[in-house]
Amino acid sequence: xxxQSGARxxxxxxxxxxxxxxxxxxxxxxxxxxxxxxxxxxxxALAALSxxxxxxxxxxxxxxxxxxxMKRTGIAPGPAAIALYExxxxxxxxxxxxxxxxxxxxxxxxxxxxxxxxxGVYDSVSELRDQLVSRRLPVQRLVMGGTxxxxxxxxxxxxxxxxxxxxxxxxxxxxxxxxxxxQRAALxxxxxxxxxxxxxxTVDIGHKAVAADPEGARGLAVNHQxxxxxxxxxxxxxxxxxxxxxxAVGELFYxxxxxxxxxxxxxxxxxxxxxxxxxxxxxxxTARRRRIRI
Length: 294
Ligand SMILES: Cc1ncc(COP(=O)(O)O)c(C=O)c1O
What we know:
The protein is α/β, with parallel strands linked by helices. The chain has helices spanning 19-30, 43-55, 79-90, 111-134, 150-153, 171-176, 260-264; strands at 9-15, 35-40, 60-66, 94-101, 142-144, 159-161, 188-197, 200-203, 219-221, 228-232, 237-240, 252-257, 269-273, 279-284. A six-stranded parallel sheet has the order 1-2-3-4-5-6. Strand 5 (142-144), helix 5 (150-153) and strand 6 (159-161) form a beta-alpha-beta unit. The mean pLDDT is 96.
C-alpha cells in the first residue's frame, strides 16, 4: 500500500511469520526502489526470513523489536537482544537496520510524567545501541514511540518517530493527552433514525461504522455533547437527553471516533472536505481491502 503510493522508506512494524515471509520477499522484488524493514524478535523467524530472502537473491535490513514494557512483542534489551542482532549480521539475506521500540503502554496524562517514562525507555534502548556499536555492529536507527510519546521522543535527534493516530487523531487521545493539540481530521456523519421517547433518540452509527473498542463511549457527538450514549449495537446507537428533548428524526450527528484506526478500516472510502465544507474528493481506504495481492 505504501509502496504503491510512492513511499521509499518503509518500516513494517510487525513480525513476519508463515506466508508473510514469502510475501515479504515478493514485496522486496516487486518494489526494488523501496526499502522495507520488518521486525524480528526471535531467531527462528529470523532464520526463515534470511533463508527465503537469500534464495530469492535479495537482501533486506531488519530491525530488532524491543519489549520496553508494552509486553506484547519484542525482546528485552539485554544479552539475548545482542545475540539476535549479532545473528542478523552473520546470516545471509538480512542485514542489521537498527532497533525498534514501541512504548504504547506509556499513558501518563501529565507531559512531565510522560517525558520521564519515555526517557527511561530511551535510556534502555540507547544503552543497548551503545553496547552493539562497541561490538562493531551498525545501528543506523532507533524507531520509537506512538502518538502519546511523540512529543517526548521528538526532542531526541537520534530517534525516528513512529506515531500513527495523530494523522487523523481521535477522541481517546484527545481526552487523555490535552497537551497534544492535533486537529480532529476525521468525523463520522450519522442521522437520528428514531426516537423512543421525548428524551431518547437512536442514531444510525452502530459498531459496523465505529470501532467497538475500547469499552465505554465509542465516540464524541461533537454537535450534541449534552447527550449521554446509552447503548450501541451493529447499526444503532441510542442516546439519552436528560435536560432537553432529544434531537428530532433526521437531525445530523458529527461523531469524533474514540479509536480512529479500526474505525477507518470499517469504511470503503472517506470524503475529503475543504475548509468551506465542500466535498473535494473521495478517498478510497485501501487498508480495508484485506486481500493485498502480493
Ligand atoms: C508498533 C506500533 N507502532 C506505532 C503505532 C502508532 O501508535 P499511535 O496509534 O499511538 O500513534 C502503533 C499503534 O498501535 C503500533 O502498534
